[in-house]
Records
---
Amino acid sequence: MGKYLRKKIIVYIITFILAVTINFFIPRLMPGDPIQSLLSRFSGMEGGREILENQLTLLFNLDQPLWQQYANFWKSVFTLDFGISIIQFPTPVLDIIKRAIVYDLSVLLPAIILSWIVGNKLGAFSGTDKRVDKSTMPFFYFLASSPYFWMAGLVAFFFGVVIGWFPISGAYGSTATPGLNWSFIKDFLHHWFLPFFTMFLVQLGGWAIGMRNMIMYEKSSNYSKYMETLGSSKKLIRKYGFRNGVLPQVTGLALRLGRIVGGAITVQVVFNYPGLGRMLLDAVQNQDYFLMQGIFLTIVTMVLIANFTVDIIYMFIDPRVRLSFTEEV
Amino acid sequence: MINFGKKVLILTLAFLFLVGGMSLAQDLPREETLVVSGAMWGPPSTWNILIPNPTPGTGGLVYETMFSYNPLENEYEPWLAESGEWVSDNEYVLNVREGINWTDGEEFNAEDVVFTYQLAKDNEIPYSPIWDWMESVEAEDNFTVRFTFSEPHYAEWDAELYQRYIIPEHIWSEIPSDELITRTMNDPVGTGPYTHRQAAQDRMVWERNDDWWGNDVFGQPKPKYLVDLVNQSNNVVMGMLMKGELDLSNNFLPGIQRIKDQFGLVTWYEEEPYMLSWNTAVMYMNTLREPMGDTQFRRAMAFMVNQDTIVDRVYGGLVQSANPTGLFGEGWQAYLDEEIVEESGFEYNPTKAKALLNDAGYVDANDDGWREMPNGDPLELEIMVPSGWTDWMESVRVIASNAEEIGVNIAPSFPDSSLFDNKRFNSDFDLMIGNFQTTLSSTPFDYWFGVANRSIHGETISNGNWGAYDNPELFEKIDEFNMTNDEARKQELASDIQETLLQDMPSVPLWHNGLWAQATTEYWTNWPDEDNPYGVPVSWGNAYQLGMIDTLIGIEPVE
């Protein structure tokens, strides 16, 4: 087991170093200059532009040679001091990430987890029952293959405009003030529902289809056939099939959770919901090196952590994996 | 499993509220709140008035200027100043209003005005260049300031009077020099009618300052709270307007004219062009490259563009085609010379454009349908606008097809906005459209300086005149216009400048972008419009003193 972990950790460290390096160089390969794009928004300053340009270049250390900037970046990876953002000048990047990530988690975490749970259950049902299968599968395929922005647009139009039950924009109403009080919480949930619900819907189909196929596969395996001939109930067969079929789904879930930050751009654009996804989009469009680096690093770290967690969880939920490790030692 | 999911959900939400619950605060009463959008392109992040684009409203709502400017009447209104005048050729004396306090209770006086300028002399901040032509600023007594100039720039000074925000000495004097532009000044102390209440990812909330000195002079602004929302996609803004959730939108919303009546939206004009003009979209030509260095070719380009197609087809009548001089608005048109426009102006005329090109030798020598350079080299040009600016992208497509009609090969190109800026600064383009430094102001000097000035010889061009058009004689005249107070001479110069620009055509004014403004009447009425022009409904940054404060005072809550 120790050897297994050591191997894994070395692989993860190498991946991390590569990711950080790429993360540093990719933004700098973009044509253009971040300072100039910041300055371009300051119109009508006769002569003042040069002054500001010099000051900002020094402030962002963009006058230093590339290797020095690269070394600074490594330092920042450990101190978490990613510098200050260009688009939200002069807010520190870390503050922006901390403020925005809350919204990513609040919509995506429940949406991913609930869709995983519900999707797997429903998929298991359709996998074992022909009638249910025939009636629900087209619906799941429809959900899984519809582009998010299209479906979210429909849902928003129907619930937000036609029936008018839910607001379609923002994280809370324009006159609400964040606070720990019931009216704000209600308002927040009211705004939260549609982004959550649409995210839930699009992911539901994929999980259900995946689970259904797994169950079908397990059903045709020898142990299921054996149980069937022994006269076991459908429910029992499904239960055993589920335990085997859920393994790949756990990997999928972990990967999805790892990508939670980058995966929400569309929901944030469609519902004008705050969050890191949209920050990232803005950062790329405005060549905000520092914000981009900060967000990418967050994503990379989360994906690595999620993967690592899966590796460990597998040892617990899959006896075969556990055995193979313990035998090795 | 389900129970586990529920637990996760509950824990997530609990965590969320812990993080989000910063203060215990009440909802803002909707009927006392004005909700606007259109000004902010990102979360509010700094209220530092020394940088040119702090959170919109910082200038105007918090910090105030010596005068305000009414672009509808072309008049200056004394604001923090009571009066001001040139007492000699190079001395300007300003009388500061008495009885004004900063929002922290300190008295506002002449020392603050002096400090605002002295700060620019002692440090490198964006408006430091004013000291190239200013000699000294002195407080003669508590409420009188004397500015002495080494080389008075009258036109620029006029603009300075309503654009420079006065800052409190007792606060800013304590900020170290190297933090002058990086401090966020979270809770800015100003003299204005509103104060910072709350900032969030998607909004800025201002709260009325009930002790504002202007209450007795101009009247009290009606909304107790002003919520400024970060810009959102057009469909979201449209939806919010339809539902009456937004009171004033300064967003550009294509097609708004079609739903205006159905949803009872208020625009400045009832009919086309619906909006006031706000800036001039100008086609710049890079004179460092052939054939744009050729005056004949540039003139042909002016006659080639069908502005009406752009106005009608791209904008659906929401903008006006530009005056050939590029001038609009009362302040600029005071110097418009109609006769020169009549004589040397241009209009859509492909025949004339073709004739100009033929005369100058740009003909289709090899019969491939496209004209070539006089020496036979192929003529292939690109016209660029930033990617994602859909109306501009559509407009350059119109221009490209206009060019095709007269046999000139111009291809549209849409670089990302930062690359666009990079190309613009480095003269790395053939043709482009820009509206930089062509925004409504009190003096046409701003426009002329923007399309023709001499700061083109550096490594990059960063101060207008993107096409690097070089005409020292004209620059001289524009400078003289800035530096003379003799009205007759100014008119004379203005006519010369317009004549030269039309003859040389370094840039082609195409259309006047509007002051996009659509208001709803669900919570607030009596919006200013053509028939009731008491203010200007504009929430854009650094424009509050151009009539928005008057609007805030003039609108009425719905009973």
---
Amino acid sequence: MKRLSFIPRIVYLLLLIGSGVLVSNVGGAFTYIVFYTLVLYTPVTLLWLFYERFALRIFQDVDVRLLYKNRPEPYTLSLSNAGILPIAGVSFAKDDEITKFKEDLMGVEYSLLPGESINYSTEISCRYAGGYIAGITRITISDCFGIFKMSYNTPSPMRVYVLPAITDIANEDINKILDNNLSKNNLYKLDSEEITLGNDIRPYRAGDSISHVHWKNYARTGKLYTRLYDKQESDMVNLFVVPDVNATIEGKDYMLDYVVSVANCFARIKKPVRIFYYSAGVRDIMIDGYDTFRKFYPDRLKEFGSVGGDVDPSAEKKLIEASLKIDGTVLYYYENEKALKV
Amino acid sequence: MSEKVKRLIEYIISFPMMIAFVLVSFATIKYMDWFLVDGVLMISYSALFLVLSAVLLFIDLEKLDIVLYLIMSAVICVIARDMGVFKMVAASFAIALVIYILRNEKIKKYGWPFITLLGFAFWIFNYRDAEKYTVISLVVMLFYVLISFVKKENVYYAAVPVVLAISLLALPTSDDPYEWGIVKKAVEGVQKVCARVVDEVSYAFSGIASKSYTGYSEEGGLSGGLISNEREEMSFSHDGLRTKVYLKGRSFLEFDAEGAKDVDEDDGNKWFATYMNALYHSGISNSDVYNFSRLVECDARYKYLKTTDIIKPICTLKVYADSVPEKKKRGFDYKLKYIIIDYKSPDVVESLLTFDGNQMYEDYDTICDYAKDIYYLDFTKIVSREEYEASKDIDLSRYLDSSFASERVKELAKEVTKGCDTPYAKASAINQFLHQYTYDLGADLTESNNYIDSFLFEDQKGYCVHFASAMVEMLRVVGVPSRYSVGYLHDERGTDMVKSNEAHAWPEAYIEGFGWVPFEPTPSSEYGMVSWGFGKRDQGDGPAGSTSQDYHKNDQGDGPTGSISQKPHANDQGDGPRGTNKPSDNSSDKSGKLRYLFAFAASIAFAVLLVIAIKKVRYALMSPENKLIYDVRVLEDKIGEEAVKKEYSDLYATYLRVRFRGDKLSDS
């Protein structure tokens, strides 16, 4: 198809040259008008393409704020012609790896009369988790004969946040680590019994579970304190998610799946894990049950799951510095390597 | 956007196609002389029909377009009562009918391409007679047809053919092939810009013309082969007689293996003293003198030239400049007063040839009066008394050094001038002899120890430098004082700009009793000097063999030759039919046209009212079932089929039964 797209241009060039030769040798209204037409076709068409670019309005939207990976959601594409001339030859392109539509909106040419608006409704599903540009990413407008084409990025791209699936891809890694800890007399193990909160308290920190708040103490003192587990926090598992400066959608997708898997592991066994991530600073959240897991998934995920934008190059350094001040088992997940390290 | 509005917009966008069809049809009918047609009325009538048809869409009577048209046509025919009008209406009706048929969804896919191809074939066959508007209309039709083949709907791409058509109206056509005047001008413009950039760079870095290219050089050194260059080095402009003029920079006295050397001193205006005496003793009157000389004032300005010399004609009287820097370069301007002499004039030649060799000088006052008489000049302001006295004793010995001449050069010179008894005859003989040699700008004699000898006996080809050097040396051998001069030989008949390819070298021989006379041994046709053609015997006969009349280069033109505006042709509006009767009420008459306009407006108003009335009557006479079908269709047009199904489900169900099952409303 790419080779075939040159045929109209070749034909046009041949006609142009032929008309030039003809008008150089034969006079008359016919040869002149045909020659002028072929010469003027280029600038007039290019002007019209530029006009179309500025007259076309496109808007795309999904009905829900959060999508789920590979789950179809209602999607609307709105086109309108804000100019005084008709527009035609408009086609769209998307990243096929990322976005799928139930009805194929690509490969079709759309035309609009002046002032006309049309809406298309279908379903969209996104393949990867994370925050990124989905849907229609590129617009192409062409003349009626396919000689000239103008392609540009969608002026108002649709940014989505796709939640990862809850999987067990991290189970094996976590088990290995916890086995190691168990051999060192650490209580933590995926299949160990549930542990209970003890009498030790500390001041409340953002992210602590409400169910861990010492309410009696609060009633007495008016200050929030968090109850600690029987075992000291020094035995807590801390996961530091080190972001990739050059993150890709695939890399972010795997990271999210992995981190959610880790969180789900610990939530299921109701054992605490503290997850540290970078979002305008080092932030963390404790997950030790489904209540805290539901806070983490999806709200907290959105804070560090997006692709694009500037990643602070000092994020890794700050996370490492924070990890040095933490007692307990410290794990590092390196997004660029897709690996968990101790 | 409702369906009706959409259809209306589509209809309007397809107007250019239909108007194009109407124009082509009109042109064809007129060409084939089938009907009596009046162009303006024809077009406006058809266009009104199209507009009215669009209006009809609002009241959903598209299928009655033809009926309406018939009614309008009948009204106009009744008003006009003229066969010519009837024919005109019939022609426009036929066209409207064809448009109506071709708009049918089933027919239009092949109908329009067929009509378009037919039109193209007809007018290609008769292309010489095709008017611009006809061809533009065919192009618009072709666009619509091609687009409809390539794409589903052609109306959305209508902007391009419409804009093209409007642009084409403004462009000229011609019966002559296109001469690419604009393109040529653009290319020339680009070439000029590039040449100027090159000139600027070379001027900035070289200062003096490169030895590889032609151009003025104040160095007398010998160059190798040269490449002709047309850099504009200076301007030289005046309003007097335009001919070829020697513009001298300097003269040289001696030669060696590397070329000319030893710059001659400027002898001021002493030459004028000698010259005036020569005229006086020849008995030249103030009417005779203008046969072979003119007093000229000119303006000169350096452009791409850097030199310490002031370039001026060989018979300059005065140089006027606000400031004279040591190194003159671009922008240096000055005025000159000089005398230009036709050295080939019979009067001059006769004077020179008959001169017996004894230079005579009159007294200063006599010459002053004489100069005033024949040239209206104040001699005292040109040659002072001291200069005048000094001019009587000119040392010519330094112009006789022929030490560089080889033996065979000397023998040759003597051989060539055998039998010549006057200096002018000797100079003429040598000049004529050297014309046998070949002019070659690429000649390179820099390797020779004696380039004059090599030129005369071995290579026998060269350019002005070689020819001038050889003649100077040969003249000196035979006792004629001579010097080698460099500058330009500028042909004023072309342009005021002195170009680098006009740079030249020539010999000047001192003819006793007359003064320094330039000769032209270089045989290239560019240097050929011809007499102005004026003389005692030729006075009043005009120039003979001279091209001294002023002329300017012909304008190259722009686009098609002969005409930028369209050639006058049979006017659509005015020149009337061929060989048929004109309408008796004379449609070209202004009042007639107004009458028709009123008739049209009245027809439209009447037609609209009639249509509304017909619709109401028609509806009133409809059966209940047909009324239901009609109402549902109107509703569908307004709010869409789906909405009708949703909001008027019962009604819609009844409608379906009535329409497809033939139920009666009384049964429902």
